[in-house]
Fold this sequence. Notes:
Blueprint: H1 5-13, H2 26-33, E1 43-47, H3 53-61, E2 65-70, H4 73-82, E3 91-93, E4 103-109, H5 111-114, H6 120-130, E5 131-142, H7 157-164, E6 168-175, E7 187-194
Parallel strand pairs: 1-2, 1-4, 2-3, 4-5
Antiparallel strand pairs: 5-7, 6-7
Helix pairs in contact: 2-3
Amino acid sequence: MEWSKSYWNDRYKAEEIGWDLGQVSPPLKAYFDGLPESDKAITILIPGGGNAYEAEYLHHLGFKNVFVVDVSERALLNFKTRVPSFPEEHLLYQNFFEVELTFDLIIEQTFFCALDPKLRPDYAQKIHELLTVNGMVTGLLFNFPLASTQPPFGGETLEYLTYFEPYFKVTVMEPCYNSIESRAGKELFFSLTKQK
Length: 196
């Protein structure tokens, strides 16, 4: 199963992106608010960023090196229109698996759940490759059964650990306490640190 650029463009054009919150996700907002001032220069990637409310929030907090990658040109245009001060060269119109830069922090927000579940081991390997020494990936994963035939796809902690433990030290993977109401009980907050 593979969803092409045209598939995602069509979904954004038709606004068929039901998991799009229209705002920064509260658990990630709380995480961003806790990052120290000294982190403002770190390089951050948001894969499959879509409308990228997280990137917008980080940008307005003063983070200078936030990048968004997405295969939907429409999603990136939506973002650029909404946040014209965001550096255009930090909007990467390409497949996440073809990104060749390195980052200190990767933010996961709905991209993992949009991938064909068969690509989950490849995702874990790729984020390990993209991170600098001691780099981190932090974000949200859906915490409900993997039962659908199209995105978004769910999963559960034990499954996720099989992908991440070979590459990362798992610092946190627990149910969110501050999800929006519609996602209450359906999200895991996680933070992983790259292992050599």
